[in-house]
Design brief:
alpha+beta, Jelly Rolls, 3 domains, 7-stranded mixed sheet, 6-stranded antiparallel sheet, 8 helices, 27% strand, flat
């Protein structure tokens, strides 16, 4: 008896070809990603989804520093040192309705874990009382503070302040602050900026991105992993319901889901790399080596050390470096080589007189506790007895002395 063979229709064969399986996997991934985003917004956006007030943002130029030392730069407000009480206070005048903005976020970088951060505010019905909430520090950044449940978050907020207490090992950069309504559009916009916003190269690695606020928001890899898992389940169900009967194996479609997630993740890194290349060229392109150093983050220090070099004899000469922050001590020593530069990597302490002998040089850069009597040519630091010294170079916050 002759056997009959049933061939699938040509349309069914075309629909199950590898290309169509890839398209199905990719579309399932995109749909799953949209569902994951909506699910996240349902929990993370308690504010109104429609007719929400806009985000209020303040730049570093609007800040005033009432305690500690700081300077305005293109990168933001650079906090260089606390005051005698180991505190820095950054104040901001505001006027907004408290109930419209349940979250306050400070945009700061390089905040060490040992520093204690606190948010202060006062309202028009409690003008004489200052309210406070602690601010957590994660990955060197300040996490947003939810103040909606605080009994002092009422009426109109007339002023905000950020207090930083502790020892600073390197400058802290405060770029701005924001009051957020936590609407769906605002939360989604924050996520998009965190996932695909430009992250300048820090020198730690060029092979990956460390999103500053991923510890407190939703990391893109976690979102992609959730979407890929959901798409995988969806494709497995589709294969079991329809594709298996057509003799299709699931490997191609499942691989398409994984590749789609990888393309989104890697695309963010590639886009960041392109912008980093453009930013690097804009900052350093076509400049001499000295101009490139002056354009770098420690440009003011490099310029001062260059002027110090004109006052020093030929190398070698003993040069002691005094600065409150380790960053400035280390960078100053680097720029002074091949001179015999000394600094303490563990503390800002300057060696006592006796260790610093006649003929040595002392560079003081943003260092408290250094006093010079120009009339008597006497230099004192950290409570030690004064020594004879000559002031060779003086600039705001910086000086060069030769011990006599």
């Amino acid at each position: 008896m002759p056997q009959t063979i049933d061939y699938p229709a040509s349309g069914a064969v075309a629909a199950t070809a590898p290309a169509w399986q890839c398209v199905a996997g990719g579309l399932l991934f995109l749909a799953s990603l949209a569902l994951c985003v909506l699910g996240y917004l349902a929990f993370a956006a308690p504010g109104p989804w429609l007719d929400a007030p806009p985000i209020l943002q303040w730049s570093a130029r609007e800040f005033s520093v009432t305690r500690g030392s700081a300077q305005q730069t293109e990168a933001g407000l650079v906090v260089t040192a606390p005051d005698a009480t180991r505190s820095v206070v950054i104040a901001l005048n505001t006027s907004f309705r408290a109930r419209d903005y349940p979250v306050i976020a400070w945009d700061a970088a390089n905040v060490p874990q040992g520093v204690v951060a606190t948010l202060l505010w006062y309202s028009d019905i409690h003008a004489s009382r200052m309210f406070r909430r602690p601010v957590a520090i994660e990955g060197g950044h300040l996490t947003p503070v939810s103040v909606s449940g605080d009994p002092g978050w009422l009426a109109h907020i007339r002023g905000l302040a950020l207090v930083l207490q502790g020892d600073f090992k390197q400058p802290i950069v405060v770029r701005g602050a924001a009051a957020k309504p936590m609407s769906a559009a605002q939360v989604l916009g924050d996520c998009a900026r965190e996932w695909f916003g430009f992250e300048p190269w820090t020198g730690a690695s060029i092979n990956g991105l460390k999103r500053a606020s991923e510890a407190r928001e939703l990391p893109l890899p976690a979102m992609l992993a959730g979407a890929a898992a959901l798409a995988t389940l969806g494709y497995a169900g589709l294969w079991r319901w329809r594709l298996r009967s057509l003799g299709v194996t699931p490997e191609v479609g499942l691989a398409a889901v994984i590749v789609a997630a990888w393309i989104v993740a890697d695309g963010g890194w590639e886009w960041n790399l392109l912008r980093q290349g453009a930013a690097t060229w804009e900052r350093y392109g076509g400049k001499s080596w000295q101009e490139r150093h002056l354009a770098a983050e420690d440009g003011p220090l490099f310029g001062f050390i260059n002027r110090v070099r004109t006052k020093l004899p030929p190398a070698p000469a003993r040069v002691f470096i005094a600065a409150d922050l380790l960053y400035f001590r280390a960078r100053a020593a680097y720029h002074l080589y091949p001179y015999n530069a000394y600094y303490d990597p563990a503390s800002p302490a300057i060696p006592p007189p006796g260790v610093v002998r006649s003929g040595d040089y002392l560079v003081a850069y943003r260092r408290q506790g250094v006093q010079y009597d120009a009339a008597e040519r006497r230099l004192r630091w950290d409570g030690y007895p004064a020594v004879e010294a000559e002031l060779l170079l003086a600039e705001p916050g910086a000086a060069l002395f030769q011990i006599r």
